[in-house]
Design a protein that fits this description.
Chain lengths: 120, 112
Amino acid sequence: GAVVSQHPSRVICKSGTSVKIECRSLDFQATTMFWYRQFPKQSLMLMATSNEGSKATYEQGVEKDKFLINHASLTLSTLTVTSAHPEDSSFYICSAESPGTGILSNQPQHFGDGTRLSIL
Amino acid sequence: KQEVTQIPAALSVPEGENLVLNCSFTDSAIYNLQWFRQDPGKGLTSLLLIQSSQREQTSGRLNASLDKSSGRSTLYIAASQPGDSATYLCAVSAGGGNKLTFGTGTQLKVEL
């Protein structure tokens, strides 16, 4: 159980292109999903928290107009990297929080396999 | 601001050896701590989750301990195998919103 599917697994595109990454919880409903970014040989850094039916909450230093997040259903969140440039090349990973019993229950997060984005 | 550090950054051991990975965090006000495994170019696989009220969790050859007051956790791997080779990450959940702060990772290589 608790499978999270992330698509695509790899994207190579030209500078200026917008790229959409999908994150789906396959066998559970996720009110909250998270988007992380990982540079080579570094750890994961939280970019934003995606809440179903409301605006995403971005971490300090993350441009919300650059990284558009949409969480239109309980099983799907999307991250769109708008007008991508080479410095946006990175490994993007999403996670979905298991349903909990309370608002601050801090349930386990289940991670997708990541998307390797390469901007030429 | 929570900071999570893992020592060592890299570790190479012969097959069959028992080993310990270390994780330390600066703010002890956490909800839980998780250990993850990450294979090259892949996402994260959750190994163990310890709630703040717990001292340890076990799964197969893995045992994780938590000393919240001192801000430390260890992951013990018994009888290591080449298939255990991966990067191991610890992460703490603190504050509202279930935000995870990840450590820098330990890259483990188990050699035949």
